Automatic annotation (TrEMBL):
Source organism (scientific name): Bradyrhizobium centrolobii
UniProt feature, compositional bias: Polar residues: 78-90
Transmembrane portions of the chain: 35-52
Entry keyword set: Membrane, Transmembrane, Transmembrane helix
Region span, Disordered: 57-90
Name of the featured protein: Uncharacterized protein
Domain of life (superkingdom): Bacteria
Amino acid sequence: MNAGFDRIGLRRFAGIGDRLARAATIASVSLGRSLLWLLAALVVGCGVWMLMPSSKGNSAQGESGKSELAAVDPAPATSPSTNQAGTASAPSVAQTLEAAGLDRLRISSQTWRRGGLGSKALVTFTLRNDNDYAVKDLEIVCAFTRRDGSHLTDRSRVLPETVSMRSRKTFAHVAVGFINVNADQAKCSLVAARRA
């Protein structure tokens, strides 16, 4: 029995299946190529990351292998600043700031996070100025360590900002530089500042 489908014009729909199959094949080939390029980019990116030097290449250490931050750690409050050999050593940060009259500056709180795909350190800290004068050109040094506490790298930054007298100012997301991928902790300290 003929239901009269010839009259509806089903013959024109007969080629649609072939066209849809052809379009699906083209789309799958295009998607396959895109996934292949994405996989190649991931492999190359991982290869470059694996070839990056570890903590030795990224640390800011001198030729002797000792950290430059050791030179800015506060010395004990003994009489003249001499080392065990009896020679005079460089003045500590606390003595330098005190000599400049900036001993009432301190970092009251600090945090850090990664930025730039995990390769840059962004530090947020609050600087407190208890002096009777404003200060400017603040220099900070941040020491980065591994989870176990071993030293990785030091980064410093001079901020051309002014902090008013008897006030505090928060510096948000200050980029201090590139850091090692293994860095887990950061400790920043004020190294120098000038009267405004």
